[in-house]
Design goal:
Blueprint (H helix, E strand, L loop, with lengths): L1 E4 L11 E2 L4 E2 L20 E6 L2 E5 L1 H6 L9 E7 L8 E8 L5 H14 L1 E9 L2 E10 L2 E7 L25 H14 L11 H15 L25 H16 L18
Antiparallel strand pairs: 1-7, 2-3, 4-5, 6-8, 7-10, 8-9, 9-10
């Protein structure tokens, strides 16, 4: 099972320029003590456990911390389709099966669809563990990472009007008029009907300036070393389903205990 980003951000690739010479501005990796440049091969990750003192962590350390977590998507439980507030949804990913996992993929997808449930799971992406929601969208299973409860700002910090309509001077006639307006403007959701007009207007402005010759010649900067892209996450969903069923089944039998979820399953990330 492979994990693919479902986002295609609508953004501009802008270059930072020095206004005095119109030359590109680069970002340097340098030693803050000596001022010397530091190549990628000499850069390591460190956790500052106290001021000025660090514990160095390698890629292998992140995997050793929890071998199973770095290799699988672990289904924790199932909840109703409308149980998760939109506030918790963060980043969507598409899940696609390999040839061996197609049956398990279809089994999970159709079960979620027929039961109107969302699968809640744990997954590690790069160096962070996420709680995630798995749900069917057409023929695809979408995995949407979720925010943890502690990552949301408490609403009691905000000053918002109370629900007492009389206190706020809202009467029944105004509510009725507002409801009728909503009904008149209601229609089926058509995502393609909405466009980023700001993006289009900005492109039009850029094109207008190009046509008018209002441009700056910029020399190509030397190619900087790029950090190697992280490899895609791969999961074995069929093995996950079998293991989840086994754990649930053993937990229900008298005299048995569910196994720890620290056992290894699923292929490692490609």
């Amino acid at each position: 099972m492979s994990l693919y980003s479902a986002e295609n951000p609508n953004s501009f690739d802008l270059t930072m320029l020095d206004s005095r010479s119109m030359k590109p501005v680069g970002f340097k990796r340098y030693n803050k003590d000596t001022g010397e440049d530091v190549p990628w091969d000499d850069i390591v990750k460190g956790y500052e456990y106290e001021k000025g003192r660090y514990v160095v962590l390698t890629d292998q350390d992140f995997k050793r911390a929890n071998v199973e977590a770095t290799q699988t998507v672990e289904i924790v439980n199932f909840v109703g389709q409308g149980a998760i507030s939109p506030l918790y949804f963060d980043t969507p990913y598409y899940l696609a099966p390999d040839k061996r996992g197609q049956k398990g993929y279809v089994l999970l997808r159709e079960t979620l669809r027929q039961t109107d449930k969302i699968a809640v799971a744990h997954v590690v992406i790069r160096t962070r563990q996420h709680v995630a929601a798995l749900l069917p969208v057409g023929n695809v299973i979408v995995m949407n990472t979720l925010r943890y409860a502690g990552e949301l700002r408490p609403v009691d910090e905000l000053e918002v009007p109370p629900r007492d309509l009389k206190t706020m001077g809202v009467n029944a006639r105004e509510i009725d008029m507002a409801r009728r307006l909503v009904e008149e403007m209601s229609e089926d959701w058509k995502p393609n009907a909405y466009r980023d007009t700001y993006h289009e207007d900005l492109l039009a402005l850029i094109d207008k300036r190009v046509q008018a010759g209002q441009t700056e010649a910029v020399e190509e900067p030397a190619i900087e070393e790029q950090e190697p892209p992280s490899k895609g996450e791969v999961i074995d969903l069929m093995a996950l389903l079998k293991r989840s069923v086994e754990i649930k089944g053993k937990a229900g039998k008298p005299g048995t205990q569910s196994r720890s979820r620290g056992r290894k399953s699923g292929p490692s990330a490609a």
